[in-house]
Design goal:
The complex is a heterotetramer.
Chain B: H1 2-8, E1 20-24, E2 36-42, E3 45-52, H2 60-63, H3 73-77, H4 84-99, H5 105-134, H6 138-158, E4 167-168, E5 171-172, H7 180-203, H8 206-212, H9 220-226, H10 231-235, H11 242-245, H12 248-251, H13 287-314, E6 331-340, E7 343-352, E8 359-363, H14 365-370, H15 373-376, E9 380-381, H16 384-392, H17 396-400
Antiparallel strand pairs in B: 1-2, 2-3, 3-9, 4-5, 6-7, 7-8
Helix pairs in contact in B: 4-5, 5-6, 5-13, 5-16, 6-7, 7-13, 13-16
Chain C: H1 10-30, H2 34-56, H3 70-101
Helix pairs in contact in C: 1-2, 2-3
Chain D: H1 2-7, H2 12-49, H3 66-76, H4 87-107, H5 122-130, H6 133-143, H7 147-178, H8 183-188, H9 203-219, H10 231-234, H11 245-269, H12 279-282, H13 291-320, H14 328-356, H15 376-382
Helix pairs in contact in D: 2-11, 2-13, 4-5, 4-6, 4-11, 5-7, 6-7, 7-9, 7-14, 9-11, 9-14, 11-13
C-alpha cells in the first residue's frame, strides 16, 4: 500500500463539502439556512483553490465572496423578510422537470470532463511525488531553447498576479525567445482599468436603485406617523 | 413646532422595513426602576414612545387617611427613596404650615445642612446612572463611592442608610452626635477634587458631548406647559427655584444664606463657574445642560452646607422637639411645594379636626418631568432614548406613589 | 486506481465544477424567492471559477503539458470581483422589487408595468 | 515532527495526523490562554480604574485562577435554547465565531519563523478570515428569534463590515512599505533599533497607525464602539439568549480577536518580535550564530511580541472603562467620513514617499537594488535581509 497522497485526500474532503452543501442549498427550504449552506460551500471552494496552488485566489475568494457577497445576501434576506421568514414551496412538477434537465446537463459535462486523456492528470509512476505543500525550487535562470515548462513558483503567485495586473506577463517573459514578440506579452492592464471603472458605475447604480423611497414621488411611501398631539391647531 | 423640527430631520431611511413595536422594560436595566416604555421604531429611528407607569403603585395617599401625621412620615421616605430627607422636609413643612408653627433657628440650620447633603447624594446618583446609560461604567462607581460617605454620615444621625424618617414635623428626633460636623466638613473638603474628576470624565468628554449635546431639547415653553420642575426646568433656561422664589415658609429656611440658582438664562450660567466651558454644540434645554445644571447645583449645595455648619455651631439655642404622636389637626387644608433634588414635591393635607388627615394628595416632580418624554423622543435613534430618560432623572417610587 | 494514492488530476476538479454548476442551475430554476435565485447564480459562477483555476494550475497537469498558465487565476479573479458587483445590483433590484410588490415571491412579478 | 514519528515506525498517515493534531492543539492552547489572560487583565485593570481591587480570592493574592473559575462556572450553567430559536443555527453560531478568530492564529507569526503556516499572502489571508466573524454574530442574532438580538446582530454586522474597509487599507499601506504580504517578512524588515519600526518609518504611517487602532477597536467590538452589547438599549444584543458554554465561546471569540488585532497591530507597526533595543542581535543570538542561540533569540522575540500584544489589549481595556459609548450613526460616520478618507490620503502619501524616499524616516544610506535584466523576480528572491548594525537592506522592487 504505497504512500497516502495527502493532496488527494484534502481534495476529496473539500470536494465532498462543496458538492454536499451545494446540493443542500438546492434542497433546503428556509432561505437563511440556504444562505448558510452556500457560505460553507463557497468556503470549501476556496479550499479547493488553495489546493490548486492558487493561494492568492483562495484568499480573494474568502474575502470578497464569503466575506462580502454573502453578507450582502444575508442583509438582503433580513431586509426582505416578511413575517416569520416564510419559505415558499415550489410545485412538484417544476422540481421533476428541473432535476431531469440537471441530470442530463451533468451527464454531458461528466462525459466531457473525463473523456480527454490529457486532463486525467499526472500519473503516479511517471512523475515525482506531487509537491503537496513544499514550494518548488526557484526556476533556474538559464534560458532553455524554445518553449519549456516553467515551474510556476507557487510561492510567488501573488507577485505574478500583481505584475500581470500591471501589464508585465512575467511567466511568459522567459519563455518567449523572439524579442519581437516580447511587446505582445501585455498583461491585463487595460482589462483591470475597464473593470475598476465598471465597478464604480455598478455600485453607484445599485446605491441609486435602492435609495430611500420615503420622500414624495412614491405615493404609497408612508410618511412618519402623524403626531396626534402635535401643537398644530388644525389636527382634530 | 418641535414635531415639525423632529419630522424634517428624521434620518432619511433607505429601505421601508416593517414598523416594530418594541417593549423596553419594565425590567429593563436602563429604566431606573419599573417603567415600561413601548417604542414604535422604523429600523433604528423611534417614531413613537409611550411610557407605561403604575408598576410601583402602593396607594400611599389612601394609607395617609388611616395614620396620624407623624406616623405617616416613613411613607414619605419611600416616595423618592434617593432623596428621603427632602421628602421628610417637604412633609414636615406642610404640616407646620397647616398647624401654623415655626421651628427654632437651630433646627432650621440643621434642616438646611441635611437637605443639601441629600441633594448632593441624589445628584450623584443621577450623574452615575447617566454615565451608565451612555455606556461608561466608571462614573457610576466613583459617584456611588462618594454617596456611600454621605450615607455613612446620615447613618450616624438617624441610624438608617436609605429611608431615614429623621426630619419630623416640628423638629428632629435627636441632634447630631458630637464630631459629626467635623466629619461632615472632612467629607466636603475631599469632595472637591472628585467633582473635577467627574467633570474630566464626563462633562468635557468628546463622546459624552456628542451623545448628549442637542439631544432631547426641551424648549422653555414646553417645559412650563408640561409642568417640569427642578433641574429639568432650570436647564431649559427658566430661572425658577423654590428655595429662592417659593412660598415664605420655604424661603425663610434659606434666610441669611448666600448662594445662586443655577440656570443658563440667556445662554450663560450665573457666575464664571470654574468648571469646563459649555460646548458649542450644546443647546439650552438639551440633555447635556440638564446634566451640567445638576453638577453645578452640587457645588452650590456644598457652599450652603458650609454656611449651615457655621450658623448651627454659632447658634446656642435648642433643637425643637417634634409634635406629639396624636397631634390634633385644625379643620382646613394646606398645600406646599418644596424644592426637592428632582423637582418640586407638593404635599396637600386636608384636616378635619381629628389627628388623622381627611385627605392627602402628593404632587410628584418626576411624574411631570417624564411627561415630555414622548415629545422629546420623536424621530430620535434608539440609543438616545435611554440617554434622554436618564437626563430627566426620574424615580418610579415618586411617580407611582 | 485507488483515489487516495493516485495524484488528483484536472478532471476531478472539472467534475466538482460541473456539480456546482448543475446545482446552481437547479437552484435558479426551482427557487421562488428572489434571493434564492441570486444564490443559484453564485453557485453557477463558482462552478465556472473552479474550472478556470483548475485549467490554470500547473500542479494538476502532467509536467510538460502547457495549460493556460496564469490566465486561469486572472480570469477567476475578475469573475469574483464582478460577481460581487453583480450581487450588489441584483440585491438593489430585489429591494425595489420588494418595495413594489411587498413580497419577494418571484411568481408575483407578472405585470410588465412599474 | 512527522518525520520523528515515522522514524519510530508509526504508519505514515497516522504520523502526519498526530503531527497536525499536536500543532492544532498548540495553537488552540495559545488562543485560549490569550483569551483567559485577557479576561483576567480586563478584571484587574478595570478594578484599578474604578478604585477597587478586582478578583483577589481565587487562587492566591492576585486572583490568578479567576478565568478558569469563570470557565468552570459557565460550563456548569444550564444550556437554554429559546423556543422561537432556529436550533441548528443557534448551536453552530458560537463555533463559527470562534473558528474565524482561531483561523487568524494560523497565520500570525510570533517570532522569526515561528508561525503555524507561513503563507505568502499572509496579510491578505488574515483580512479574509477576519471577515468571517460577522457570520457567527449574524447567525447568533437571527437564530435567537427575538427582536432585540436581531437588532444587536444587524448593528454589529453593519459596524464590522464598514470597519473592514479602513482596516484593509491600513494593512495595504504596510504591504506597500514592505513590498510583501508575508507576515514573517514584514516582521523581519523591522529588525534593529526601534526607529526601524514602521510606525517611525514616515509621518504617513504614523497617522495610519492611529487609524488602525481606531478600526481595530471598532472591528473587535470594544468600547467605545461596543454597540451590539449595548446594555442600556439592547440588553445584551445578540448575546441575550446565550448562556453557559455557548456564551463562553462568544466571549473567547471576542477576547481572542482582541489579542489578534493588537498582535497584528504590533506586527505591522511596532516591529513585531523586534524589541526597541535589538538585544538578541547584540548578544549574538541570531540564527547564524548556531541553532540553540537562534532558538533563544526567537524566544526573546516571542516574549517581545506577546508583551506588545498585551499592551495593546490593556489600551483597549483602558478605553472601555473610561469612555461612554457612541451611537450607531456616529460609529458609522466616524468610519466613512473620517477613517476611510484619512487612510486613503495616507495611502497615497506612503506610495509617493516610498517611491521617492525608500529609506526610513532617519535616512539611512540605503543601497537600492539595481534592477537586473530581465526577471525582476530573481532580484527579489535572492535579496537577503542582513542586519548589520541596523542598516537593513531594503529590497524595493523596480518595476520598469
Amino acid at each position: 500500500m504505497d504512500a497516502i497522497n495527502w493532496h488527494s485526500c484534502f481534495f476529496l474532503l473539500f470536494a465532498a463539502i462543496a458538492c454536499g452543501f451545494a446540493v443542500a442549498v438546492v434542497v433546503v427550504g428556509d432561505i437563511v439556512r440556504m444562505a448558510c449552506c452556500l457560505v460553507v460551500s463557497l468556503a470549501a471552494v476556496a479550499g479547493l483553490f488553495f489546493l490548486a496552488e492558487a493561494e492568492f485566489l483562495g484568499a480573494a475568494q474568502l474575502m470578497v465572496y464569503v466575506g462580502g457577497t454573502m453578507v450582502l445576501l444575508i442583509f438582503g434576506v433580513m431586509l426582505t423578510a416578511r413575517g416569520p421568514f416564510v419559505s415558499m414551496k415550489t410545485g412538484g412538477g417544476q422540481w421533476v422537470l428541473a432535476i431531469v434537465i440537471g441530470v442530463a446537463l451533468f451527464a454531458v459535462l461528466l462525459q466531457a470532463a473525463t473523456s480527454t486523456s490529457a486532463w486525467n492528470g499526472p500519473k503516479a509512476n511517471d512523475q515525482a511525488a506531487v509537491p503537496a505543500a513544499n514550494n518548488s525550487p526557484l526556476p533556474q535562470a538559464g534560458e532553455g531553447p524554445g518553449v519549456r515548462a516553467v515551474e510556476g513558483d507557487s510561492q510567488d503567485a501573488a507577485g505574478q498576479l500583481g505584475l500581470g495586473l500591471l501589464g508585465v506577463r512575467e511567466d511568459r517573459l522567459r519563455r518567449q525567445d523572439k524579442p519581437v514578440l516580447l511587446g505582445g506579452m501585455s498583461g491585463y492592464l487595460l482589462v483591470f482599468e475597464i473593470i475598476s471603472v465598471h465597478l464604480v458605475v455598478v455600485l453607484v447604480g445599485a446605491a441609486y436603485l435602492a435609495r430611500a423611497r420615503r420622500r414624495g414621488r412614491n405615493p404609497e411611501s408612508r410618511s412618519p406617523l402623524p403626531d396626534p398631539r402635535s401643537p398644530k391647531p388644525e389636527s382634530p | 413646532m418641535q414635531a415639525e423640527r423632529a419630522q424634517s430631520d428624521t434620518v432619511e431611511f433607505d429601505v421601508r422595513t416593517d414598523e416594530m413595536l418594541i417593549n423596553m422594560g419594565p425590567q429593563h436595566p436602563s429604566t431606573h426602576g419599573v417603567l415600561r416604555v413601548v417604542l414604535r421604531t422604523d429600523g433604528e429611528v423611534v417614531s413613537e414612545v409611550t411610557p407605561h407607569i403604575g408598576y410601583l403603585h402602593r396607594s400611599a395617599e389612601k394609607i395617609a387617611e388611616k395614620l396620624t401625621v407623624r406616623q405617616y412620615l416613613p411613607y414619605t421616605d419611600r416616595l423618592d427613596y434617593l432623596a428621603a430627607m427632602n421628602m421628610n422636609l417637604g412633609w414636615a413643612l406642610t404640616v407646620e404650615k397647616l398647624l401654623g408653627r415655626r421651628v427654632s433657628e437651630k433646627t432650621r440650620h440643621l434642616r438646611v445642612i441635611i437637605a443639601e447633603l441629600n441633594r448632593i447624594a441624589s445628584h450623584l446618583v443621577a450623574a452615575g446612572c447617566f454615565g451608565l446609560d451612555l455606556g461608561s461604567f466608571t462614573p457610576f462607581m466613583w459617584t456611588f463611592r462618594e454617596r456611600e460617605k454621605i450615607v455613612d454620615l446620615f447613618e450616624e444621625i438617624c441610624g438608617a442608610r436609605l429611608t431615614y424618617s429623621y426630619l419630623l414635623p416640628g423638629g428632629v428626633t435627636a441632634g447630631p452626635p458630637d464630631g459629626w460636623f467635623g466629619r461632615c466638613e472632612a467629607f466636603l473638603d475631599q469632595f472637591d477634587p472628585v467633582i473635577d474628576e467627574l467633570h474630566a470624565l464626563l462633562t468635557s468628554n468628546a463622546i459624552f458631548i456628542k451623545r448628549t449635546a442637542d439631544v432631547g431639547v426641551l424648549p422653555p415653553e414646553m417645559a412650563i406647559d408640561y409642568g417640569c420642575t427642578g433641574p429639568v426646568l432650570r436647564a431649559s433656561g427658566v430661572d425658577w427655584d423654590l428655595r429662592r422664589d417659593g412660598e415664605p415658609i420655604c424661603t425663610e429656611m434659606y434666610d441669611g444664606y448666600t448662594w445662586q440658582v443655577i440656570a443658563p438664562t440667556g445662554g450663560r450660567y450665573p457666575d464664571d463657574h470654574p468648571y469646563p466651558p459649555v460646548p458649542p454644540e450644546a443647546v439650552v434645554g438639551d440633555s447635556w445642560h440638564r446634566f451640567f445644571v445638576r453638577m453645578l447645583e452640587v457645588v452650590q449645595s456644598m457652599y450652603l452646607i458650609r454656611q449651615g455648619i457655621e450658623k448651627y455651631s454659632a447658634d446656642d439655642g435648642e433643637l425643637d422637639k417634634p409634635i406629639k404622636i396624636k397631634e390634633k389637626l385644625p379643620k382646613g387644608e394646606a398645600y406646599l411645594e418644596t424644592e426637592a433634588p428632582k423637582g418640586q414635591m407638593g404635599f396637600m393635607i386636608v384636616g378635619d379636626g381629628s389627628a388623622v388627615p381627611w385627605r392627602v394628595r402628593i404632587r410628584s416632580s418626576s411624574f411631570c418631568n417624564i411627561s415630555p418624554l414622548p415629545e422629546l423622543c420623536r424621530g430620535v435613534l434608539i440609543a438616545d432614548m435611554p440617554a434622554i430618560l436618564a437626563s430627566l432623572d426620574i424615580v418610579l417610587g415618586e411617580i407611582d406613589r | 486506481m485507488n483515489i487516495f494514492t493516485e495524484p488528483v488530476g484536472l478532471s476531478h476538479f472539472l467534475v466538482v465544477g460541473a456539480v456546482l454548476f448543475v446545482c446552481g442551475i437547479i437552484c435558479m430554476a426551482t427557487k421562488r424567492n428572489v434571493l434564492g435565485v441570486l444564490m443559484g447564480i453564485e453557485l453557477v459562477l463558482n462552478g465556472a471559477n473552479l474550472n478556470f483555476v483548475a485549467f490554470g494550475s500547473s500542479v494538476l497537469r502532467p509536467p510538460g503539458t502547457d495549460g493556460i498558465g496564469m490566465d486561469g487565476q486572472m480570469i477567476a479573479l475578475f469573475v469574483i470581483v464582478l460577481a460581487a458587483a453583480e450581487a450588489a445590483v441584483a440585491l438593489a433590484i430585489a429591494l425595489s422589487y420588494y418595495h413594489a410588490h411587498a413580497t419577494v415571491d418571484v411568481d408575483r412579478g407578472v405585470e410588465l408595468r412599474g | 515532527m512527522a518525520e520523528l514519528l515515522i522514524s519510530i515506525s508509526i504508519p505514515d498517515w497516522l504520523a502526519h495526523t498526530i503531527a497536525a493534531l499536536v500543532q492544532c492543539g498548540l495553537l488552540l492552547a495559545i488562543a485560549l490562554c490569550s483569551a483567559a489572560v485577557g479576561i483576567w487583565l480586563e478584571r484587574k485593570v478595570s478594578a484599578r480604574i474604578q478604585d477597587r481591587l478586582g478578583p483577589t480570592r481565587v487562587g492566591g493574592k492576585f486572583g490568578w485562577l479567576q478565568p478558569p473559575a469563570d470557565g468552570l462556572k459557565l460550563i456548569c450553567k444550564e444550556d437554554i435554547i429559546p423556543a422561537a430559536a432556529d436550533h441548528i443555527l443557534f448551536r453552530i453560531a458560537p463555533y463559527v465565531c470562534f473558528c474565524a478568530t482561531f483561523c487568524v492564529f494560523l497565520a500570525l507569526p510570533f517570532a522569526n519563523g515561528w508561525v503555524a503556516v507561513e503563507l505568502n499572502a499572509g496579510a491578505f489571508f488574515l483580512l479574509a478570515v477576519a471577515g468571517l466573524e460577522i457570520f457567527g454574530v449574524i447567525l447568533g442574532g437571527y437564530a435567537s428569534g427575538s427582536k432585540w438580538s436581531l437588532y444587536g446582530a444587524m448593528r454589529e454586522a453593519a459596524q464590522v463590515v464598514s470597519y473592514e474597509i479602513p482596516l484593509g487599507l491600513c494593512v495595504v499601506v504596510v504591504v506597500i512599505l514592505t513590498g510583501t504580504m508575508n507576515l514573517v517578512e514584514i516582521g523581519n524588515q523591522q529588525a534593529g533599533w526601534f526607529f526601524n519600526w514602521h510606525i517611525f518609518h514616515d509621518p504617513f504611517t504614523f497617522v495610519v497607525f492611529w487609524v488602525y487602532v481606531t478600526c481595530a477597536v471598532a472591528s473587535s467590538n470594544r468600547a467605545p464602539f461596543d454597540l451590539p452589547e449595548a446594555e442600556s438599549e439592547l440588553v445584551a444584543g445578540f448575546l441575550t439568549e446565550y448562556s453557559g458554554f455557548r456564551w463562553v465561546f462568544f466571549f473567547m471569540g471576542e477576547y481572542a480577536s482582541m489579542f489578534v488585532v493588537s498582535g497584528l497591530g504590533a506586527l505591522l507597526f511596532l516591529g513585531g518580535w523586534n524589541g526597541p533595543i535589538p538585544i538578541a542581535s547584540l548578544l549574538g543570538l541570531t540564527p547564524d550564530g548556531g541553532d540553540v542561540f537562534g532558538w533563544i533569540g526567537n524566544l526573546l522575540g516571542m516574549c517581545n511580541f506577546i508583551a506588545k500584544a498585551f499592551a495593546g489589549m490593556t489600551f483597549m481595556i483602558w478605553l472601555r472603562w473610561t469612555l461612554p459609548r457612541l451611537r450607531i450613526d456616529q460609529v458609522i460616520t466616524t468610519c466613512l467620513k473620517y477613517c476611510v478618507p484619512i487612510v486613503s490620503a495616507m495611502l497615497a502619501g506612503v506610495m509617493l514617499w516610498s517611491f521617492f524616499l525608500p529609506g526610513g524616516l532617519i535616512l539611512h544610506v540605503r543601497s537600492r537594488y539595481v534592477a537586473q535584466p530581465p526577471s525582476a523576480v530573481q532580484s527579489r528572491a535572492e535579496s537577503s535581509i542582513t542586519a548589520e548594525g541596523g542598516c537593513a537592506t531594503r529590497n524595493t522592487m523596480d518595476i520598469r
